[in-house]
From TrEMBL:
Residues 17-98, 102-164 form the CBS domain. Residues 860-996 form the Phytochrome chromophore attachment site domain. This is histidine kinase. Residues 270-322, 410-462, 659-711, 788-840 form the PAC domain. It comes from the Bacteria. It comes from Phormidium nigroviride PCC 7112. InterPro entries: CBS_dom, CBS_dom_sf, GAF, GAF-like_dom_sf, HATPase_C_sf, HATPase_dom, PAC, PAS. Residues 1010-1037 form a coiled coil. Pfam families: CBS (PF00571), GAF (PF01590), HATPase_c (PF02518), HisKA_2 (PF07568), PAS_3 (PF08447), PAS_4 (PF08448).
Length: 1236
């Protein structure tokens, strides 16, 4: 056979093309595509593929890939390798579509270029692919070529080449032996053909990516190509002459040996898949096609084999098997669900005969609407009447569209009306049975109750809306980049954090947007994420709009060499971390300066690392001493507990946040100290424990208090047991049930404590009915800070009421909310009776004392009598109390009365002798007391009985009032509504009051006698007042005339001074004139005053000093005057010398303190101390009193007058030269008992 004719043995390209490949739409679910790859019917044949002769449907066995076609254009390829990648990824593939998993960058072959199968085989070898789509000139798919389909033809062609080369070699040998016989030209042609054939064979073999080898029947390798050597990583000489069986795992050798038994000259080719062990130890899968070479005797002389690595395919097949198993499990599960749904009444079948309009409706479908099978006839119009009126048009349109061929399937969702009037959602699906002409004869399908799904969809829509709102509310930057750093997607979540607006950067690379450093930084992290296929995190900062931002980015790998970059603005966190660093520094400072003892200990060996000054001061140990000690060495042996270390371990593990212990610690000086130890854990930023921190609080004082409290508790328990009062607590609200009561309750009221605690109303039900309401009111009105004391009668177990005293206190918490009521109950029966007796006695004494006080305070007999009967009626609780006066001639009259409401009045009524006969007069005069308890008493005379009936009296008490051995009247008490047993104390009270009334009557008579005498004395007093008024007018006239005479003398002195030429004499006249004016001013104040005996010294001094300033022509602008004088009232004998002293001192100041027109201040102060001493102060801030001058020994007349008048006042005067001049005069008011 000639080499040029070998290609004729290859299969035609059309035979290698699968014109009916499995195709799917991009929106097809991945689960359906996997089912088609496993074994499926072609759902979408290619539009330009020829129809199969046998059937309209092509059933394919398990295939390795499907074409993804959209609008007759090839858009992708879904292969078993894609399935393997999905199975290995973390994404859930069950809900994915084909478009999300398919391979988009395809290697395709134009149909016009597909002239032989070697073209396709080269592409398989070049790109390591298994499937090669064939497209026409418009890019529409026409079929698919698989490497598996053309591999046998290629191997047969290679074998034919090998045989042809062998034949050529034999021809060459013949040519060499018969060179002389053959023509030179034929030999050259043969040699050239042989070299060409060998070259072509070697070129094809060496260029193949397939593994090609030859080996002997014993397995020794005689030839390998370069692909074989590269695969195992060795040189050809390392393999030639060695048995390839050693490269197989022992488990696969037996399977491989079995293949040789099936080889024969008629069937020389066999295919096998097995594993091999590479020199690196890695085990991989290979697929081999072996061909046996026989000699003329039929013996195998050699094997030729071509193989390839199918590890990825094997893994994909395993993954596909797992996916198929999962699908089968889901199909089985969904089948069970469907059966359960049908059995549960959620789905039903129907069959509609379109020609007769009869319809079969499954009973389960009728049950969905609440009907029995017989309630709905099997007619279409009956069934259609249950469709919701609003949905009937839509259902009819869906049916008509399907029957007319406008839609491929019948499927519609609509509502139906149940028997109870409610509505349910129904999913109707069906398919038609058509005649040969395509006319629909029957329509069969199912109705499924999808009410729950509709509700779920509604909830899902709401949930999706919430998710969209949540996504819109996100503040993170979400970006999608490809491997080159190109912006693919930008989520509109935080546009203000983008380096540039999204429209400006979308579709551009990082290098086009950012500076080189920033772009390389981001691109490096993108490459790192794609290389590792793991999520990375990175923090970086970026300046956006002249403001520095910090970001925390998460870079996650996506499919198709893409990454998602999610960046969160952590600028605030960075600032917080900086603040935290400052806070840590502040913590160290606070730790060192903290007033409480703090210590840090290692979490490994529990030794002390650091303590603060308060710790050193508390325990006395130095840092070096504590560094060698553990906390157990500081703890008293009796307080060491086994769980101390365990609690620290729990703290380190994070099971607890802190723990507290109370222990006794040993100070350096050996003393024991009770401490409250609080231990917490300090971790670093990554949460790794660094050390434990203990805070030590000295609680020695509290422990001593607890011991004292325990002692107090024991004493309290003793007191509760032996206390004469019952201690109890009660609920603060509701029925105030008793929550605790002391055991001594039995000794006091006779009941067991359990009886009172078991019944919430036990105590209140045994309170006397008259006292019960007030007792409950006291409980209800109880408030914080106010105790309540109540006394009531309580029924003892022996049936006798005992008096109890209870004090209640409301306990509240810190918020003012009531906690409980605490109180005590003590028996006060004896003291209560004594108190009642004492109260009665007190009332008697009070009444007697009130009447006696009224008698002493008032001389009005009528008032005394009315008061007496009113008070007595209240004390006795009698219906009437009255005073009956005996008239001088005969009979008597009621002159005072106090009556209860509803009783008739007797006041001012007169009664004759028949009511009060003469014999009764004598008995009462002898002091008889009449006490009638009952109207029918035998001691009552008929006339008295008749009178008592007339005035409706049942009992009465009568006590006589005797005055000067004469019966003046009677004090009577009436009880009108019932009989009454008059008590002895009531009679004694009547007797005491009668004595007081006798005194009042006597005083009244004396008062009448004194009225006449008082009238005479008032007339005499009036005459005396008129005489005294005349004398006061005369005295004022005298003072006025004395003042006028003094003013005349002063005027005469002034006239005389005007005639004197000597200035010294003129000053003397002026001084005398001022002295006279000072005395005249006193008389002027006296006659102008309403009090002729005393003068207001304060007003007098103000007028006196003002006159002096006027006399000396002193200007206020030069010398300021300050007068601070209290209103002190003095008699004439004291005021006159005091005024003269003030005159002399102020005059001396005005003349000498401010020479040459200097300015200053003159102060005059006068006040009186608590003991009555009067202080007069005259001071100035002038040049000061001469140091060498004694004012007591000077010849100055003024100071002589001052000293003399001071002695007259029996006072003292002192001089101060500290600031200017100050004179201090102290004296008391002079007392003169006789003026005339």
């Amino acid at each position: 056979m000639e080499l040029a004719n070998l290609s004729a043995n290859l299969r035609s390209p059309d035979e290698a093309v699968d014109r009916h490949p499995v195709t799917v739409d991009p929106s097809t679910s991945l689960a359906e595509a996997i089912a088609l790859m496993r074994r499926a019917i072609d759902p979408c044949p290619l539009p330009n593929s020829p129809a199969l002769p046998d059937s309209n449907e092509t059933v394919k066995a398990s295939i390795s890939c499907v074409l993804v076609v959209d609008e007759n254009q090839l858009v992708g390829l879904l292969s078993s390798q894609d399935m393997l990648n999905l199975a290995a990824s973390e994404y859930g593939w069950q809900g994915m579509k084909v478009a999300e998993a398919m391979t988009r960058n395809l290697i395709v072959l134009q149909e016009s270029e597909f002239t032989d199968i070697t073209t396709a085989f080269k592409l398989f070898c070049q790109y390591s692919i298994d499937c090669l789509p064939i497209v026409d000139e418009r890019g529409q798919p026409v079929g698919i070529v698989s490497e598996k389909r053309i591999r046998p033809a290629m191997y047969s062609w290679i074998e034919a080449l090998h045989q042809e080369v062998a034949k050529l070699q034999e021809q060459c040998e013949l040519l060499e032996g018969n060179c002389e016989l053959e023509k030179v030209s034929d030999r050259q042609n043969a040699e050239n053909a042989m070299r060409q054939s060998e070259a072509r064979y070697l070129a094809i073999v060496e260029d193949q990516t397939e593994l090609i080898c030859r080996y002997l029947p014993d397995g020794k390798i005689t030839f390998v190509n370069q692909a074989y050597c590269r695969y195992f990583g060795v040189q050809p000489e390392d393999l030639l002459g060695k048995c390839f069986i050693s490269l197989l795992p022992s488990a696969d050798r037996e399977i491989f040996q079995q293949q040789y038994t099936s080889v024969s000259p008629d069937n020389p080719i066999f295919t096998s898949e097995h594993r091999v062990i590479l020199p690196s130890g890695e085990i991989r899968w290979q697929q081999w096609i072996d061909r046996a070479i026989f000699d003329d005797s039929g013996q195998i002389v050699e094997y030729q084999a071509a193989g390839r690595d199918v590890t990825d395919r094997k893994q994909a097949e395993i993954a596909l098997q797992q996916l198929n198993a999962e699908l089968e499990r889901r199909v089985q599960q969904r089948t069970q669900w469907y059966e359960m749904a049908v059995s549960a009444g959620k789905v039903g079948v129907w069959d509609w005969n379109l020609e007769t309009d009869e319809i079969y409706i499954a009973p389960s479908l009728k049950a969905l609407l609440g009907y029995q099978d017989a309630e709905i006839p099997n007619r279409m119009e009956n069934w259609a009447s249950h469709v919701h009126p609003d949905d009937r048009v839509a259902v009819a349109e869906a049916v008509n569209a399907y029957l007319e061929g406008l839609t491929e399937i019948y499927e519609v969702e609509h509502r139906m009306v149940r028997k109870d009037g409610s509505t349910c959602w129904i999913l109707g699906r069906g398919s038609a049975i058509r005649s040969a002409s395509g006319k629909a004869l029957r329509l069969t399908g199912t109705d499924t109750d999808i009410t729950d799904r509709k509700l779920t969809e509604e909830k899902l829509q709401n949930s999706e809306a919430e998710l969209v709102a949540l996504f819109n509310a996100m503040t993170d930057i979400v970006l999608v980049f490809d491997a080159s750093g190109r912006y693919l997607k930008i989520a509109p979540t935080a546009p203000e954090l983008l380096y540039k607006p999204a429209p400006e950067v979308l579709g551009k690379t990082l290098a086009e947007i950012f500076p080189e450093a920033e772009a390389n930084f981001a691109l490096g992290h993108i490459h790192q994420t794609l290389a590792s296929r793991q999520t990375h995190r990175v923090e970086y900062r970026m300046e956006i709009g002249c403001k520095l931002f910090w970001f925390d980015a998460t870079i996650s790998p996506l499919e198709f060499e893409r990454v998602m970059w999610v960046a969160r603005d952590i600028t605030a966190r960075k600032h917080a971390e900086a603040a935290l660093q400052k806070s840590e520094e502040k913590f160290r400072n606070l730790f060192d300066d903290a007033p409480i003892a703090l210590g840090l200990a290692s979490v490994r060996d529990y030794r002390t690392i650091k303590v603060n000054e308060a710790h050193r001061q508390m325990l006395g140990y130095s840092d070096s001493e504590l560094a060698t000690m553990t906390f157990t060495e500081l703890t008293h042996p009796e307080d060491l507990q086994a769980d101390d270390v365990e609690q620290v371990k729990q703290l380190v593990c994070g099971n607890i946040s802190r723990f507290q212990k109370e222990k006794r610690l040993i100070k350096k000086n050996g003393e024991l100290m009770w401490a409250n130890l609080t231990v917490t854990l300090i971790r670093d930023r990554e949460g790794i424990p660094l050390y434990s921190m203990g805070a030590i609080e000295d609680i020695s004082y509290r422990k001593r208090a607890e011991m004292e409290f325990q002692q107090l508790k024991e004493r309290l328990q003793f007191l509760l047991a032996y206390n004469p009062a019952v201690i109890f607590t009660a609920a603060p609200t509701g029925d105030f049930c008793t929550t605790y009561i002391s055991d001594n309750v039995k000794a006091i009221v006779g009941y067991e404590p359990q009886e009172l605690l078991a019944d919430s109303k036990f105590w209140s039900s045994r309170i006397h009915p008259e006292d019960r309401q007030q007792f409950l009111v006291n409980f209800s009105d109880l408030s914080e800070g106010k105790n309540c004391i109540c006394e009531y009668r309580f029924l003892h177990r022996d049936g006798i009421y005992r008096w109890l005293r209870t004090e209640l206190k409301l306990l509240v918490d810190s918020r003012g909310i009531p906690i409980e009521i605490i109180g005590y109950a003590a028996e006060i029966t004896n003291s209560k009776y004594a108190e009642i007796s004492l109260q009665q006695q007190f009332e008697r004494e009070r009444l007697v004392e009130a009447i006696a006080r009224r008698v002493r305070q008032s001389l009005q007999l009528e008032e005394i009598l009315n008061t007496t009967v009113a008070e007595l009626q209240q004390v006795l609780l009698a219906d009437r109390v009255l005073v009956y006066q005996i008239l001088p001639k005969s009979g008597g009259r009621v002159i005072a009365e106090a009556v209860a409401e509803g009783c008739s009045q007797l006041v001012d009524r007169c009664f004759g002798e028949e009511v009060f006969p003469p014999e009764s007069y004598q008995l009462y005069l002898q002091g008889r007391i009449s006490a009638i308890s009952e109207l029918d008493s035998p001691s009552i005379t008929p006339c008295v009985m008749e009178f008592m009936k007339e005035i409706q009296v049942r009992a009465k008490l009568v006590v006589p009032i005797i005055q000067h051995s004469q019966l003046w009247g009677l004090l009577i008490a009436h009880q009108c509504d019932r009989p009454r047993q008059w008590q002895e104390w009531e009679m004694n009270l009547f007797q005491q009051l009668v004595n007081q009334l006798a005194i009042a009557i006597q005083q009244s008579l004396l008062y009448q006698q004194l009225q006449a005498e008082l009238s005479d004395r008032k007339q005499a007093e009036s005459n005396l007042k008129n005489s005294l008024k005349e004398k006061e007018i005369l005295l004022k006239e005298i003072h006025h005339r004395v003042k006028n005479n003094l003013c005349v003398v002063a005027s005469l002195l002034e006239l005389q001074s005007n005639t004197v030429a000597d200035p010294q004499l003129g000053k003397m006249f002026e001084e005398s004139q001022n002295r006279i004016y000072s005395m005249a001013l006193i008389h002027e104040k006296l006659y102008r005053s309403t009090n002729l005996a005393q003068i207001n010294l304060g007003e007098y001094l103000e007028d006196l000093v003002s006159n002096l300033f006027h006399s000396y022509n002193i200007s206020n602008n030069r010398i300021q005057l300050q007068v601070l004088a209290e209103p002190i009232f003095l008699n004439l004998e004291t005021a006159t010398p005091c005024g003269l002293i003030a005159n002399e001192l102020v005059s001396n100041t005005l003349k000498h303190a401010f020479p040459d027109g200097t300015s200053g201040t003159v102060s005059v102060e006068c006040y009186q101390t608590g003991d009555g001493e009067i202080n007069l102060l005259v001071k100035d801030n002038g040049i000061g009193f001469p140091q060498n001058l004694d004012f007591r020994k000077t010849n100055s007349m003024g100071f002589q007058v001052v000293c003399t008048l001071t002695e007259q006042l029996e006072g003292s005067i002192e001089l101060s030269r500290q600031t200017g001049t100050a004179f201090y005069l102290k004296f008391n008011e002079l007392n003169y008992s006789q003026r005339f």
